[in-house]
Amino acid sequence: MAKKKGRNRKSFERILSMYKYKNTVARLSNYPVLKQLGWRHLDMDNTTLTYIPVYENLELPAGTAAPISIIERFIREASHHLILSCCPCRSENQCQDFDPDFGCTFLGPAVLDVDPEVGRLVSMEEALEHLHQATEAGLVSCLGKFKLDAIMLGVRDHNNLMTICHCCPCCCLSTSIPHASRETRDTVVRLDGLSIAVDAEKCNGCGACEKVCMFKQIEVVDKMAVIGEECKGCGRCAMVCKQGAISVTIDDPSYIDACIARIGSKVDVGT
Asked: Where are the domains of the chain?
């Protein structure tokens, strides 16, 4: 049974209220003096987050597993699994399109520090089912290490806490990324070996892709979608393109192992 070491419900909810001001918090990363005073406590040098695209027409090398298997492998290897009682981003920003009570998943022995009122321990099978439900609901999952989550949950050792956010394009904390410093923006790393391209002959400049890009990395110029250099590869643009003009491609068959090695070097989810 988990010990009540972490945030109780009351203190957890106080911290959640900060998510209403996520854009302001992101802007603070642009000020060197604030970085020296407090931003360093977020340990951004050891932060890494990667979006795992679930676009059904993702182009993969023959015989290569889909990207979601990256998350599935971490879930299977984790010693402990926890599902948060709500999504901080959706609940605090009053999401109208997705369930605010559909919480994030956390992995590793550090979840034993989380108060049972804040999140519930689940089995590996339940964590896998939660992931699949997120995908079916149209949420795109992001995984990695983020010390702010450990602070929010009252976890002492953030090196043993892996975050799996199930993100909506309207309320997710990542929507504040365009307001942050370049250093902070670069903590969200595109999936290894992934590229996104626009077919000029198919694109009609409708702008649907531009509306769903929470990183503000795609815009319509002269009636054609143009992808920015800081695209994080979530694949939402391809999901909504009715013309089939946007392709999401992975060329390197070893991309899964490369991603697991990169994220695994930052956070240990085993015993």
From this structure: 9-192+252-264, 194-250
Residue 168 to residue 91: CA distance in whole angstroms: 12
Task: Give the pLDDT confidence score for residue 3 in this predicted structure.
Answer: 47
Q: Residue 2's pLDDT is what?
A: 42
Amino acid in position 88: P
Cα 140 to Cα 138: distance, rounded to the nearest angstrom: 7
CATH classification code of 194-250: 3.30.70.20
- Mean pLDDT across the stretch 51-58? 88
How does residue 243 score in pLDDT terms, banded at 50, 70 and 90? very high
